[in-house]
Amino acid sequence: MIQKNISLAQYTTFHIGGKAEFFAEIKRKEELGEVINFAKKHKLKIFILGRGSNVLLPDKGIKGLVLKMSIKGIIFQDNIVYAGAGEKWDKVVAMAVSKNLGGIENLSLIPGTVGGAVYQNIGAYGAELKDVLESVDVFDIKSGEIKKLSNKECLFAYRTSIFQKSAGKNYIIFGVILKLSTIFFPNIKYPDLTKNFNLYSHYDRALDTISKITLNEIRKAVIKIRKSKLDYPTASIGTAGSFFKNPVITISNFQFLISNRPDIKGRDLGNGLVKLSAGQLIEMAWWKGKQFRNVGVSEKHALVLVSYKKAKAKDILRLANKIQKSVKTKFGVTLEPEVKIYGKHGIM
Ligand SMILES: Cc1cc2nc3c(=O)[nH]c(=O)nc-3n(C[C@H](O)[C@H](O)[C@H](O)COP(=O)(O)OP(=O)(O)OC[C@H]3O[C@@H](n4cnc5c(N)ncnc54)[C@H](O)[C@@H]3O)c2cc1C
Q1: pLDDT tens digits, one per residue of 154-204
Q2: Quick check: 311 and 295 in contact, CB under 8 A?
Q3: Which CATH number fits domain 3-69: 3.30.43.10, 3.30.9.10, 3.30.360.10, 3.40.50.150?
Q4: pTM of this prediction?
Q5: In which pathway does it act (predicted)?
Q6: Which class does domain 72-229 fall in?
Q7: d(CA 339, CA 241)
Q8: Which among 19, 140, 139 is positioned nearest to 85, based on CA atoms?
């Protein structure tokens, strides 16, 4: 079950990454104890991989044991869904929509696994996974115990969770329980969606029309918008979606920023903070569509870095670095990667 020297590029949507010293694909939760014992016996570090759609793995490979999570299974019981961590996230969304269960339709077509979705608290078009998550089943690498974490215990926030903090770094997610709704009100406040349903200028007066929009119509609209705005990985182009998080700054910093550049967009978070659009800042710094030898910035969306044939992690990192520096110099704003960047020994 445990293999040696396996190329990881094939397991990431950037198509980048050297070899794993040890590698195992986990198809049942019972296998976890066995592989963890192997890692403990040989003093190996453990790395978890879902679909690899939000990671940049090092060219030199990973020293330790990489576990690719492929635990399957989706069970619906009324409005409660249990999903294995290795299931495709979008399969869960498609099934929920077909059963007329609301809550995750705005999260359609996000690549990756259920486990990766929880780790990252995925979000799109005004929805986040945390809004429907009931509990998470985890295997504790340290104690070998199985635990159930409630939504509150997962410490979800913008693109983060306990699994990204030291308190949760020993947890392997193997299953998730979601609570969906049988009665739902379409969540189409996000401008692209409002526009799609031709309700742009009179959202408040159109409640009756909005209430008739079906889950399937929302899923279809989200898929259409995503396909028009994003590059999806193909055999020749790699991407991990948004490379940077949207920066959050104080209101006073925002006011200073727009006193020079009134066109900079910001969303008031209501707690003295404003969320900026990283994509807009990168575009305003003239990076959109820029192509280099093996890597580039998407022509469709400035927040998306793309890799071409023979691209290396170091090429992506060099480009990301240049973008960060130019946005910092132009606007004084720090861009933080959303993609998890790994070194030989773990997340950097
Ligand atoms: C074209 C494209 C569009 C995207 N759009 C969006 C979007 O709209 N919104 C959004 O939020 N994200 C988006 N993403 C990013 C990505 O798809 C999500 O973050 C996804 O949830 C990652 O899942 P994964 O299985 O690929 O995780 P991976 O990339 O394999 O792993 C990501 C991190 O999660 C950890 N992890 C994965 N599985 C487990 C597990 N079972 N237990 C413990 N830790 C685990 C890994 O160790 C790693 O650190 C996009 C990516 C692409 C390529």
Answers
A1: 999 999 999 999 999 999 999 999 999 999 888 988 888 988 887 765 556
A2: yes
A3: 3.30.43.10
A4: 0.94
A5: Cell wall biogenesis; peptidoglycan biosynthesis
A6: alpha beta
A7: 8
A8: 139
Q: Is 326 a catalytic residue?
A: no
Per-residue pLDDT reduced to its tens digit, 264-299: 999 999 899 999 999 999 999 999 999 999 999 999
Which residues belong to CATH 3.30.465.10 in the chain?
Answer: 72-229
CATH code matching the domain that covers 238-347, chosen among 3.30.420.140, 3.90.226.10, 3.90.78.10, 3.40.50.2000: 3.90.78.10
- Which of the listed residues 31, 120, 304 should we mutate to test ligand 1's pocket, taking the one with most ligand atoms within 8 A of CB? 120
Cα–ligand 1 centroid distance for 55 (angstroms): 7
Determine the distance separating the centroid of ligand 1 and the alpha carbon of 142, expressed in angstroms: 24
Q: Which pair of tokens denotes residue 44?
A: 């190996």
Q: Residues with beta carbon inside 6 Å of ligand 1?
A: 13, 48-55, 69, 85, 110-113, 115-117, 119-120, 122-124, 163, 172-173, 230, 232-233, 239-241, 340
Mean of per-residue pLDDT scores for the chain: 94
Atom 21 (ligand 1) nearest CA: 117
Joined together, the tokens standing for residue 259 give 């006193």
User: 77 pairs with which residues across the strands?
Assistant: 80
Comparing C-alpha atoms, which of 330, 33, 52 is closest to residue 20? 52
